[in-house]
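Anyone else keep sequences and structure tokens together like this?

Example one:
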Amino acid sequence: MKTPDKLYIVQVDVGEKTLQTVTSLVPYYSEEELMGKTVVVLCNLQKAKMRGETSECMLLCAETDDGSESVLLTPERMMPAGVRIV
């Protein structure tokens, strides 16, 4: 779901549960590109409020210094949802 201020509110399957995150990826990804995408997620964060929405995790990205490009980190091979990053 896109918010008026160019943020996505995303539900992320992390294995044993689903977490919500608020991300500023609107300039880089369409909603269709994000749906069902396997990504790397940081889950050991405190909940935070962004524009009134709860964010419980963070999608990890690589971004250029000037912010012109941001790419979600994805696993090289398919892995089950919720596996640990070591």
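And example two:
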Amino acid sequence: MIKEEKLLFIFIALFLFSIVMLLVQNIKISETKIIGYATEQTTVSNVTISKAFSIDMSANLSEGILFGSISPDSTNENATHNYDGASSGSSMYINVSADSNTAVDFCIKSNDDLKTSAEDIIGIGNETYANNVTTTDATSPALADETSLTTAYVKAGTNITIGNQSYFRFWLDVPAGQASGDYNNTIYFKGIEIDASSFVKKGCVDLLYLFKSKPRIFFLAINL
């Protein structure tokens, strides 16, 4: 009888021990869940803002680069709007719009020589321009800085900042004996972004540009 009581006691003790161990295990599981809820995870938020800009012409440059009537054997004839701005400055300019987020370089080229419908030609080397960034008056852009137009894009104003302009003047030489007629060609302007981090100017030809002006027309009539 005593032996049976001992066995029963051992059985009850083992049973109680098992119950206690199960309770302890549940407590550990609960504690693990609480710890899990308290942990933190992180991730990175990233965005890249692209460079963007827009440029526009002054009304008089949009009208065209006009020379009116010129006699043969004339040198450095002024375009109509070379000196009709404030303080006798040029009223022909290209502006970097205020909604841009980068500075801009401007480029310029001509499509061809000045020609009549009869194929009379004034060579492209006779068409010249000068430009000045941000300001213009009676002396700037200066004739002394004139550059002949070419059929390839070249820089004509660099690092024009947001809200600022590059002003232009144009001149024309008409050789002696030039045939009379109406001569025309097309002038293109192009804006490209500048690398502000290194100030390395990007080439006019090698980049896809974001803006090209409407063609500008040189027009003149040669008097006999």
